[in-house]
Write a structure and sequence with these properties.
It contains 14 helices and eleven strands. With 364 residues, the chain is of the alpha/beta class.
Length: 364
């Protein structure tokens, strides 16, 4: 065989090998695995507090108030469940009267609501303890400590469960104090003054020698302007929300009467129908998320006081440590027994709060 013939044969074999290795048939493309669809659980809920508050300094529209905390918690829950649990919130009063959230949730009118225990103490007397006995908690950290380290949470959980409600506290860390039309550097300044206050806060004003006046919430501004009242008890945010900064002269921010904790009420049947992992998520992690979010509202309350001082000449008042200790001890002696007397269970809850206060040296 000629030399060029061998060369041609070798070249042909080489080309065949290249074709075999480089162009081997590829396996047919396999279909992508089907992605399981998430079963979306939709709950209907109703808020209780204003949803259209004005911007507070660095906090833009929709980022202020309890509404903002509620929406952030809702978004966390949606993300944490992978979009499985979605809540459609109705405006306050759209489905049921705001003061009847406990009854509406217990009956299943809605699956969830945001409310305030002070609104239904006639039906749930233990809510007087839940909303914070006067001076019970100087900080939101103290409130958290009493709830989860002293057993208050577990006891209140039972109270709501008996009404077909799964309850979670949602601290706001609000600065609740006394707004005034007069100088108030000491507790004695309250004597003889007419202060808009209701419930336990009204009892506190009476304890200081003032006269509690239960005028409607929406009438506080004109009440101050016309002299119907000399002051009011509420969170400092009312300086902005109700424009009270335009007429107020002072605000007692220390001591804080309460932290104004609100609550998340979930229909127990709806809760039990949730997948177990979502139930566990709510039970284990809600406390941490709501605690973190409470600081946002506290900053707003602090900003409101500073803004009113700068722009309207409001004087913020902090009573002396001696005065604070004196009024705290007096409140425990005179006001706590009123709540404890409502029922044996109320008495047990009050004792839990008092034990924590004693342990930290706030009372004897």
């Amino acid at each position: 065989m000629k030399k060029n013939t061998w060369f041609s044969l070798g070249l042909a074999l080489l080309l065949a090998l290249v074709l075999l290795l480089g162009y081997a048939p590829k396996p047919a493309a396999q279909p992508a695995p089907a992605v399981p669809k998430v079963k979306v659980i939709k709950w209907k809920g109703q808020e209780t507090f204003p949803t259209k508050l004005p911007p507070y300094g660095p906090f833009g529209a929709g980022q202020a108030g309890v509404h903002a905390i509620t929406r952030e918690w809702t978004e966390w829950l949606k993300r944490a469940t992978g979009g499985c649990l979605v809540i459609d919130w109705a405006e306050p009063g759209a489905i049921f009267p705001p003061f009847e959230a406990d009854a509406a949730v217990g009956k299943g009118v809605v699956q969830i609501a945001i409310s305030f225990g002070g609104y239904y103490t006639g039906r749930i007397p233990e809510a007087d303890v839940e909303t914070g006995l006067v001076f019970a908690y100087p900080t939101v950290a103290a409130e958290y400590d009493c709830l989860y380290n002293y057993g208050l949470y577990a006891e209140l959980k039972k109270v709501y469960a008996e009404r077909n409600i799964n309850w979670y506290p949602m601290p706001t860390d609000a600065i609740v104090g006394i707004g005034t039309l007069f100088p108030a550097p000491t507790p004695e300044a309250i004597k003889g003054k007419k202060i808009r206050a209701v419930g336990l806060w009204g009892d506190y004003i009476a304890m200081l020698g003032g006269s509690p006046v239960p005028i409607p919430w929406g009438e506080i501004y004109m009440g101050l302007k016309l002299g119907t009242v000399d002051g009011w008890t509420a969170g400092s945010a009312t300086l902005e929300e109700l424009k009270l900064k335009e007429v107020a002269k002072g605000f007692v921010y220390s001591p804080r009467i309460a932290n104004a904790p609100v609550n998340i009420l979930i229909n127990m049947d709806a809760f039990k129908a949730l997948p177990k992992d979502i139930q566990e998520l709510l039970e284990k992690d809600t406390r941490y998320v709501t605690y973190a979010l409470s600081h946002k509202w506290h900053q707003q309350c602090t900003w409101v006081i500073a803004d009113a001082k700068e722009k309207y000449g409001l004087i913020p008042y902090a009573w002396s440590p001696e005065d604070i200790k004196k009024v705290t001890e007096k409140a425990v002696e005179t006001l706590f027994p009123k709540v404890a007397a409502k029922s044996p269970r109320c008495a047990k809850l009050v004792e839990i709060v008092k034990k924590q206060m004693r342990d930290y040296g706030r009372i004897k």
